[in-house]
Amino acid sequence: MDLFKKYIDNFILFFLFTGIVSLFTECLMTPKTISAIMLYFFLIYKHLVLKEKFPSGAKKSLLILLFLFFVSLCLSAIFSEMPLYSFEWIKKSYWVSIPLGLAVLSIGYKKNVFKIILLAFITVFILNNLHFYLKAVKECHTWDLFSKTFIPDRNYTFYLGLLLPFALSSLLVFNNLIFRCFLILNIFFSLAFLFPIGSRGAFVTIFLEIILWIIFVSFLMWKNNKKIIITGWIVLLLGFSFLAYKYHSHPMVKGAIKRRLSPNGRNIIIKDRFFLVLKHRPVLGIGYGRLLYFNFLEKYHVPKRCGRYDSKEKRFIYYSDEGIFLQTIIRQGLIGALIFILLFLYSLKEAFLKCLKTKIFIEKGMFFAIFSVLIAHYFIRGLVETLSLTYFVFFIFIIAIPLSNKDNK
């Protein structure tokens, strides 16, 4: 028992690593479940049985806002037309990210927690490259990455927007040359994957994340590494030029260019649905869950202009591309949306300030990566596309960690 107590933090770190890897991919469902269950067990044992306190110094105001966000979610579920169904969706979305976040708070800045988290993000970044490449090979019947028939799954872009900033930060944190070269190849591979998908939102997101990273590196290293930074800009420009040349005739790229700034029906979706929700469910929204959304739209006879008929479900499936900010109003009402916006802005500010304040390189890289994801993925892309907030909740917990005392006084 004493031995178990001595190494309980190591068990938590292990399942934190496996939990992050399995949460940020679509191909590891069983490890995700096991990791979440084991983290619940070890956290309950550590803090309720052994009665160890959480490390002090966490950003309580940020965690209180996160708590209020979940209160809003629960209230919208209670007053929805299908409370149990809505709670099932809430559980499905957040039951893994919550123990991962609590594990981060439980360990705090001890035991190289930032290095473990960063290594987990790098691992799943590389794993996703391999998984989605093999998936595309199977579906498109070609191994040629530059073939006009090679079209990867669009879901890859959502994971890429979440993980690329951490891969870029790892180039600064880890000094091993072989590891850096391998990571650079994977980054180039991920960018080569991006073009044939033809997602305009994803391209803008990834391009902005790279620009933010170059500005960040220039700010840190300009005085002593001007030549390296200028070389990096040139290499990046040449890399994008090469990929643009290879993919300029790809049908998905042509389609994206042809669409330009076309809203793809999002203006119709907002016009038909958003103000209807504000009229009938302004305070608490309609609740969380696609069935609640579909039933509400059918109840008020919303035109079936943006969607498709699903023969399996035997009903019309409405597309939901309102963006996360408008969708939060639909799900949780104006109160929930206000809490979410405050939570988002506060987390953005904290990530940026901690990046500036810390003198430890791995912490600086971690917080800037999260800041980049919040700006490029959740704000820019989230304005026009529906994104999962599962990962956003986990990032909140990381931002709430106090900075280590070492070298940060």
Descriptive notes:
The protein has 409 residues and is an all-alpha fold. The protein has one domain. It is 72% helix and 2% strand. The chain has 17 helices and two strands. It has helices spanning 2-6, 8-23, 29-49, 60-78, 83-94, 97-107, 113-140, 155-173, 177-197, 200-221, 226-247, 251-259, 266-280, 290-299, 324-357, 361-380, 390-400, and strands at 307-310, 315-318. It has a two-stranded antiparallel sheet. Strand 1 and strand 2 form a beta hairpin. The model has no long low-confidence stretch (mean pLDDT 83).
Residues in helix, %: over 70%
The total count of helices amounts to 17
The side-by-side strand order for the widest beta sheet comes to 1-2
- For the record, the count of structural domains works out to 1
Outline: globular
Q: Please provide the ordered H/E string of secondary-structure elements.
A: HHHHHHHHHHHHHHEEHHH
Tally of DSSP β-strands? 2
Average of per-residue pLDDT values: 83
Could you describe the largest sheet, including whether it forms a barrel?
A: 2 strands, antiparallel
Strand content: under 5%
**Secondary structure category:** mainly alpha
The residue ranges in which pLDDT falls below 50 over 5 or more consecutive positions are: none
What assembly state would you assign to the polypeptide chains in this entry?
single chain
Radius of gyration: 22 Å
Termini, distance in Å?
A: 37 Å
